[in-house]
Amino acid sequence: MIQYLTNNHEIVWQALQEHLYLALLPILFGFAISLPLGYLAVRFSWLYHPLINTFGVLYSIPSLALFVFLPVILGTKVLSPVNVVVALTVYTVALLARTVADGLRSVDPVVVQAATAMGYRRTRRLIDVELPIALPVVLAGLRVATVSNISLVSVGSLIGIGGLGQLFTRGFQLFYLEPILVGIILSVVLAAIADLIIVLVQRAVTPWTRAA
Amino acid sequence: MNFSYLTDPAHWDPSNPGSIPNLILSHLGYTALALLIGAVIALPVGLYIGHTGKGSFIAINAGNAGRSLPTLGLLMLMVTLLGLGLLPVLIALTVLVIPPILTSAYAGMRNLDHRVVDAARGMGMRPWQVLTRVELPMALPIMLSGFRNAALQVVATATVAAAVGLGGLGRLLIDGLAVNDYSRVLAGAIVVAALAVLVDLFLALIQRLIVSPGLKGS
After folding, report:
1. Residues 6 or more apart in contact with residue B49 via CB below 8 angstroms
2. Distances in Å between the alpha carbon of A65 and those of A159, B19, B88, B184?
3. Which residues of A touch B196 (CB under 8 A)?
4. Domain boundaries defined on chain A
5. B37-66: per-residue pLDDT in tens?
6. Domains of chain B, CATH where assigned
7. What family, per the record (chain B) (predicted)?
8. How many CB atoms are closer than 10 A to CB A49?
9. Which of B105, B96, B44 is nearest to B71 (CA)?
10. What is the mean predicted confidence (pLDDT) over B139-162?
11. pTM confidence score
12. Are the beta carbons of A108 and A132 closer than 8 angstroms?
């Protein structure tokens, strides 16, 4: 395996970079979309169940089906990485919008009342009080979304998109174990590192959760 | 959008081995086998860890570790090691379903109200009775939600079986893509998504039937 790595480090390095970018871009987009969506689902409670159910169905669409089907809807090329980014963004939103809503709903109403009594208006109260309290729940959802995105990107290799999945299909076609093993290990390590970073960020930004 | 593949009666003829009903059957076959093997392995382990509290670390981290393992890579690794066939597909899919089943069995047992368990003991129930009549029925809703999660994932992921030459609904996606037949790809995507929803509804119905009425609404 070491020999495979030394001989092919350029291919592996490029696959790793593509993988990272294809997995993390959707997380950024998905997070940016989920925050307002989750907030709306809490602010207008009649939206909550329709939204959750829609995302439940979206989440059940297989990634392979979404990858090959998006070009038909978006008019993109089959080989375009945009398909993978959009598909994974859909999954991220499906997962995170619910977590954001659940996190905001878990905020103790007494705390919200206290903040209102202290003169917080809706927007400031949301940013200064409710979101920070919801953050542990939201970040737990972000961990799930990040880890599953990193492992899902590899399915894109079936439709010729880059990333570590390329190592799987290459090894499979040549009946050659090393690239597959390298791909799996790198993918798992990448997910573990991303997960660890989120945990560390959470510890840094929510110091009060450690007091309990 | 072109629905012609989906609506062509010839593609629904059960006597044709590549027809949609047969692909659905093989797809459900992989799904059910993987869920069954996964449950046989993961349920006892999860229940044991949840009951005794020993090895909680494993149960808590199994979920995340399992999610991070790319199923496609595992599948191709298994095929490279074992050759083509049903076994590598089953191994890859079983590895996929074990974490959610294990974690939810653990969580179900951990979240029991200890007063109820104590009350059962106080009433003179033996450990086996406490387990089968109190702990298991009360843990059932959480355990089943984990099982439904696993089922949803495996129905969606069983499509990759087609990438290593097996059947299942992934055939429509892979073959359709190979010959640029988007109508077939669309048919595959729709049928898999519908199947996932139906399987989930079916399991929800079972959940409604077997969860004790005393636990509902809580």
Report:
1. B55, B56, B58, B59, B102, B106, B109
2. 10, 18, 22, 11
3. 60-62
4. 2-211
5. 999 999 999 988 888 888 888 887 777 778
6. 20-212 (1.10.3720.10)
7. Belongs to the binding-protein-dependent transport system permease family.
8. 10
9. B96
10. 89
11. 0.86
12. no
Contact (CB, 8 A) for A157 and A163: yes
> Which residues of chain B neighbour A144 with C-beta distances below 8 Å?
64, 67
Q: What is the pLDDT of residue B218?
A: 47
- Check if the beta carbon of residue B162 is closer than 8 Å to that of residue B171: yes
Q: What amino acid is encoded at A151 in this protein? A: S
Distance from CA of B44 to the nearest CA of A (A): 25
**How far, in Å, CA of B143 to CA of A178, rounded?**
38
For B1-47, write each residue's pLDDT tens digit. Answer: 778 888 888 888 888 888 899 999 999 999 999 999 999 999 999 98
Tell me the CA distances in angstroms from B82 to A121, A199, B90, one per residue in order.
63, 38, 12
Pick the CATH number of A2-211 from 3.90.550.10, 1.10.3720.10, 2.40.128.130, 1.20.1050.10: 1.10.3720.10
Distance CA B205, CA B199 (A): 10
Compare all CA atoms of chain A with the CA of B157 and give the residue at the minimum distance. A62
